[in-house]
Amino acid sequence: MQYSFLDFLSLLGAVGLFLYGMKIMSEGLQKVAGDRMRNILSAMTKNRFAGLITGIFITALIQSSSASTVMVVSFVNAGLMSLADSMAVIMGANVGTTATTWIITAFGFKANIDAFVLPLIGIAIPFLFSKKSNYKSIAEFMIGFSFLFMGLQLINTNVPDLKANPEMFSFLQDYSSLGFLSVLIFVFVGIIFTMIIQSSAASFAIVMIMCGKGWITFDIACAMVLGSNIGTTITPILASLGANASAKKAAMGHFMFNFFGTLWTLCLFYPFVDLNAWFTQAFNLGDPNALFRYLENIETTNPALYEQVINGTGPEKILDEIVNLQFAVSFGLSIFHSSFNIVNVTVMIWLTNWFVKVTNFFIKTKHKEDEEFQLKFISSRMLSASELNITQAQQEIVVYAERVNRMFEMDKTLLHTKPETEEFNKLYSRIQKYEDISDRMEIEIANYLNKVVDGRLSYDGKMRIASMLNIVSEIESIADSCNNLARTMVRQHEAKVSLNETNMENIETMFRYISEAMENMLSIIRDMEIVNDNNIMKCYNKEREINNYRNALRSENVEHINQKLYSYEEGIYYMDLICESEKLGDYIVNVVEGVKSQSDRVHNQ
User: Fold this and answer.
1) Which of 4, 410, 434, 583 stands the most exposed, by the fewest C-beta atoms within 10 Å?
2) Treating both helix axes as pointing N-terminal to C-terminal, what angle do 245-267 and 316-348 enclose, rounded to 10 degrees?
3) 574-593 per-residue burial string, b: 16 or more CB within 10 A, e: under 16
4) First-to-last CA distance in the chain?
5) Residue 161 has pLDDT above 60, yes or no
6) What pLDDT, on the 0 to 100 scale, is given for residue 372?
7) Does residue 217 contact residue 182 with C-beta atoms inside 8 Å?
8) CA pseudo-torsion sign 131, 133, 134, 140
9) pLDDT grade for 39, boundaries at 50, 70 and 90
């Protein structure tokens, strides 16, 4: 039987269904536990051992080491986690991902997939149309779980028979009997294969099927599993490419952990494989090495029977024996994967500080002025865990607000800078530059939030992003007001109009009120998820104070002009500065209300 191109497409579709099921299952869990995971990570990474346990727990929960390591890279990128803490969490993620391999092992060969997959989808479908977002997310998890095992079954059905199609996989035969060189070659094959599909779980499933069909020996399968541990690091590496230096260091630490772990395992490869085979036999599950010999013996002594067995139509006794040996293979590979990661973590956890030093040596942090136009915490590449990208956007909004606050501080300086001087011109140019940067930051943060909201977010997450979009818009309005203040001062000086001492003092007082309101706003933004009610009330009180002061000065201005204390033209520029400042105060209140609405959503979840 020749393996056709249509058969190959069917295999690709089976792998795709497996990966899609893994993605849907992981994202469903992330939507259910998104905020809880964020809180767990922030609370449980105070030391390397707490970080290790956290990494194990989170990865076992969301069933994806790629998602959890990308999440960690995102947190480092957002400044919420130190590099040393991230290393421990990443190490834990490598242990947590073994939970997926055990699920595949438990259901892969012995379970009747048809008996639970379709009923599970049937149970999930009504919940998919529920108005409650948590029910929808649970339904997505159940459907993803079902798709994962449907994909696994289809992969098993559609992989080509090596014996019937020797020309397709001749390299497996050519390079599988070269001793330790074969081990190195298949480690490399595992790396490349996992890098392509970006899923160590899918890689493990395919290796398990290859070994279960007798294509490769148990030790070669272990070599490919080792390679998949290095190959899976490509996902966080890709996620960190557009991020800051700290995120790149976290991704590099993940690679180093798996790379050096693979090195020591290769030095003790055959004894380590034999130890895991012994553990499998100790559980009375059989020898994982026996399946390859058993099928090879049948092929040699009875080719016709071998053909029947491969097609699943042989004697029931022999088929049952093969299923038992296949389970021994899958169990042995799971033990190998788990023991490798557990031993690796046990050794590497003590070298966390060394990993930090090495990554700091190879990846240098750029100077702040070099990154002036680059968003600090978010990038378009960091969208693998949508529910958790909200934190990065929050941190970027803090940076945005702080930048706009510096812009207002420049306005205050410009007020007292002598006009028509180089210092005045440079400061005004800098304010205009900040206005340009502010416009760009608004667009980039808003675009990022729109990309996140297009992902698989919970209803609460989408509502929080709507609040954040309003906050970003209001911060940009503050920047516009700051720029308008500077432009008013420039027009005033071009018109050769000077402000008298009393008016200057009034403007300074108004600026002081705005500065106090701005500082209060910044303190609220810096901790968006826990808003202090006293700070909210302080903001409203300051806004009323600003409004009352503006009203008093406006009435006073008319009287002073009528009394000829200063010219009408001076009064225009004076009131332009006062009224623009009052508008700025309104925008500050709008920002605070946006933060308050987002905080209310978090507490009401």
Assistant:
1) 4
2) 120
3) bbbbbbbbbbbbebbbbbbb
4) 57
5) no
6) 44
7) no
8) positive
9) low
Amino acid (1-letter code) at residue 9:
L
- Residue 107 is predicted with a pLDDT of 65
Q: Give yes or no for residue 605 having a pLDDT over 60.
A: no
In 3D space, the residue among 463, 592, 596, 468 whose CA is nearest the CA of residue 529 turns out to be: 596
Query: With helix as H, strand as E and coil as C, how does 8-57 read?
Result: HHHHHHHHHHHHHHHHHHHHHHHHHHHHHHHHHHHHCCCCHHHHHHHHHH
Helix axis angle for 568-604 and 459-494, nearest 10°, is 170
Question: Which of 54, 48, 79 minimizes the C-alpha distance to 69?
Answer: 54
Q: SS3 string of 277-313?
A: HHHHHHCCCCCCCHHHHHHHHHHHHCHHHHHHHHCCC
Could you tell me the two tokens for 143? 């459907």
Residue 186, CA atoms < 13 Å, CB-side half-sphere: 31
Count other Cβ atoms within 10 Å, centred on residue 172. 18
Q: What pTM value is reported for the model?
A: 0.60
Residue 223 banded pLDDT, cuts 50, 70, 90: very high
CA 132 to chain centre: 25
- Tens digit of each residue's pLDDT (9 = 90 or more) over 68-112: 676 677 667 655 567 777 788 888 888 887 877 787 777 655 555
Lookup result for tokens 């009408």: 568
The amino acid present at 535, given as its one-letter code, is N
Residue whose C-alpha is closest to residue 149's, from 119, 171, 189, 129? 119
Owner of token pair 């990966």: 19
> Which pLDDT value is given to residue 42?
55
Please name the amino acid found at residue 467. Answer: S
The structure tokens listed for 431 are: 């304010």
- Rounded CA gap, 545 and 551, in Å? 10
Q: Are 107 and 419 in contact (CB under 8 A)?
A: no
Token readout for 255 is 């690679």
The encoded tokens of residue 366 equal 């750029």
CB atoms within 10 A of CB 261: 22
Query: What is the number of alpha carbons within 13 Å of residue 396 lying toward its C-beta?
Result: 31
Q: Take residue 602 and report the two structure tokens written for it.
A: 């978090």
